[in-house]
């Protein structure tokens, strides 16, 4: 009774059961390597996220819920400061499980520190001027430029606004022991949540990094973690026949070897937009090194059928598509019958919008398959906290397997470090120039 | 004094001046073909958008501004219903020139009809229940499924809410003569704006399709059209040496022939997100046919440097990047000096956020170029209505040239039609099944 159903009817000509099973030996070895790292003492392989996430966070849940209750009681806005893995997971949860339209009594959660637009920050400062604000700054090292600059500016605002009580409004999520943010948090008596040392940024959504923002958004994080916990159990077998996460990893590898170099993660529910962004970081950063890896991109259908759809249907054939679909919506709506039938749509009046959306999905899959695009479908029953937690774990496990199948290390990001060094050195050098002039 | 500066320092090893100039003959022929179509009587080549957009819309501006004044006076919300070319251009203007945070007295513009999520539509119906609403439904044929279904549902809401006065709240943007929407608009006495027959969907942003929503958003459409008008003049030469739109088209073609099959349009200002989406439709739908074309994708930096940045830096080498940069922000903000320097960022306190963002852009271009990614930069002075109008025209003209260089027709979209037929037939057949059961 797995919570994610992997449908392969449109990829059988590219990756049949035999081709998939031929990876079993390799998959078992990688599986062994991954799981051995949990119990070993070495911290060379940061696989803390592989452990049952419900168990791992058991002692933290009550503390996080307690902080969240205070934030909800005392503030209009929670500003979450973070970038990359300290941003995308929390934003994915916020959008997937929240409302499209903010309701009056909800705490509004605003994500900043992920870019450097001065227009944005100016408008934000105007917007929050007269509001009650809490801040959750998330950064393992505390030295990543974007969140650091944004925190400096927001902290000044908070200190001016709340004076002696400012420290109450700042919650720091950072490393247990090291880093500037940890030091600042001790000096200023900020509340402090820990990012486990053996969990890297893009694998950290089910730690306090994602959990505090999630619970402020009204998400039941016990359900979220329970979903991930089910996944940890159900996806724990090295046997390809019963492990869809590994099947997905193997199929990707087969497709890449056939020249399908771009993967489009497609959804038919716009709420999943930032889940897609989270997924892009997960796979792009884990696999995109040594001049290899599948280039991860995304589309939201049916919107993008009317833009990039033409290319997918009939452009250069180096794509494949993974459709993440949802069986049941939260609420449905029926097409109304109209006496004048001005738009000739009365033939649809026995259908709901979700039924039509599902037919659109099937039509799309068929059309793209006919256009020589391999199409994988991953289907979940509904989009709730439980299934979202399951999805996070599913993709993290699939990603680790997939990267190892490519012979790259899923857990480093040398290219990002290069940019970070690059900008720091440019900033320092111009800084000196400015000071000399 | 061109308004877009094309910087090529990071692509010289891929496409030097000689290589670019070798396209002159071909470019001149295509240019001749395109421009001849304006004055010819045949409507086989829909190049109405090539004409001076200010001149073309002269008689309409006052009418559109008048309707907009009524909407702003009488409503809280304008719902714009459209998909593809009847959506992305207007949304691009809305986001690029509007505020990040909606202000109380502004008319809120909500775009629907571009997807089929029942959760979204349900939440929207709740949200607008007690608000004053106008609707602008945009569809050339009136038969595209997503906007048609959404309009049917919204029209019912408007008729229940306003009764006899409902027709006053609906403005139709559609074909001059044909289509269901045109007929409905006559029968119901809706106000009606025309999409010129010789302008296809993805080239229609500077017609009433984009202009009415734009002016409701507070955009000065005279400036927008003036920018496009300047572009029409400045980019009217077939001479590659003085026409950056054609230079861009040629460089893309050279890069594709070298195996750079994916183009990333990157920005450092998140407001441009839907401009990127508009651009993706423009190029994807114009070029992605006959199993050729560059796959268009996008990133928002610095955000995505911390996700897909690793892949761009060091993944499979089949990418190139076009960076659309802005010299001056609307407002800037300075990094404050802090006595405790808790984050060790005092060395930045003589810098503004926009300066740092610009340094990040230069650092990124350098890093990616060093990582064997060709990087083109397109720079505009500032992001205002004038420059945005210029950009729209620039890319449309570059796109037409680029598609012809690939030997594909820039103005059709056979793959999209396939999906449209596909879904209609699936809906009809299940519809019959349902009726039989």
UniProtKB/TrEMBL annotation, chains A, B:
A Pfam match: PGI
Family matches, as Gene3D superfamilies: Glucose-6-phosphate isomerase like protein, domain 1
InterPro entries in the cross-refs: G6P_Isomerase (IPR001672), Phosphoglucose_isomerase_CS (IPR018189), SIS_dom_sf (IPR046348), SIS_PGI_1 (IPR035476), SIS_PGI_2 (IPR035482)
Subcellular location, record wording: Cytoplasm
Superkingdom to which the source organism belongs: Bacteria
Main subcellular localisation: cytoplasm
E.C. designation(s): 5.3.1.9
CDD domains linked: SIS_PGI_1, SIS_PGI_2
Pathway as given in its UniProt record: Carbohydrate degradation; glycolysis; D-glyceraldehyde 3-phosphate and glycerone phosphate from D-glucose: step 2/4; Carbohydrate biosynthesis; gluconeogenesis
Catalytic residue positions: 285, 420
Catalytically driven reaction(s): alpha-D-glucose 6-phosphate = beta-D-fructose 6-phosphate
GO molecular function: glucose-6-phosphate isomerase activity
Keyword match Cytoplasm: yes
HAMAP family: G6P_isomerase
NCBIfam families: PRK14097.1
Role this protein plays: Catalyzes the reversible isomerization of glucose-6-phosphate to fructose-6-phosphate.
Similarity comment: Belongs to the GPI family.
Protein name: Glucose-6-phosphate isomerase
